[in-house]
Specification:
The chain has 154 residues and is of the alpha/beta class. Helix content is 31%, strand content 21%. The chain binds guanosine-5'-triphosphate and magnesium ion. Magnesium ion binds next to helix 2.
């Protein structure tokens, strides 16, 4: 069972489709993170650089996730479609400070300071240190998303 399956189970399943936007710098580990969220039998061993953007669809027993993966600088029609109105909605934002296994990695607290995340006042946000190769930190992020989505339902 992948982390998305667990998330779907926890959500109460009122919604049938969930859109997730995965945005980050080139080579930051976006595809690796999304791959790790899939059930192990659906994961690929062969991660290649994403050209432009990619759309992944996950179907769990009763929920489908559409994940749009694109570079922070991408400005495509598709990303526009999915991101329309995001700015004005109180949608949760989960940050992964990925590649924390690298020797020169800085802490998630420092990343948060450098990105001035404390200035985000109109949306719930959370930052997790992660090592997407080992899958470390991803569960913490999914747990936080679960709490946020539960709160949005009530
Ligand atoms: N050391 C380390 N390497 C990682 C980690 N996550 C991803 N990588 C590696 O970083 C490289 C880029 O990972 P991708 O998942 O392709 O990154 P991306 O953000 O999707 O890259 P683009 O599609 O090119 O924007 C790959 O060689 C991954 O194996 C991590 O947590 N630690
Ligand atoms: Mg990619």
């Amino acid at each position: 069972m992948g982390l998305f399956d667990k998330l779907a189970g926890w959500l109460g399943l009122k919604k049938k489709e969930v859109h997730v936007l995965c945005l980050g710098l080139d080579n930051s580990g976006k595809t690796t993170i999304i791959n790790k969220l899939k059930p192990s039998n659906a994961q690929t061993q062969d991660i290649v650089p994403t050209i432009g953007f990619s759309i992944e669809k996950f179907k769990t027993s009763s929920l489908s996730f559409t994940v749009l993966i694109c570079q922070a600088k991408a400005d495509t029609e598709t990303s526009g479609n999915i991101t329309t109105n995001i700015k004005h909605r109180r949608l949760p934002i989960l940050f992964f400070a990925n590649k924390m296994d690298l020797r020169d990695a800085i802490s998630s607290v420092k990343v948060s300071q450098l990105l001035s995340l404390e200035n985000i006042k109109d949306k719930p946000w959370h930052i997790c240190a992660s090592d997407a190769l080992k899958g470390e930190g991803l569960q913490e992020g999914v747990d936080w998303l679960q709490d946020q989505m539960q709160a949005m339902k009530t």
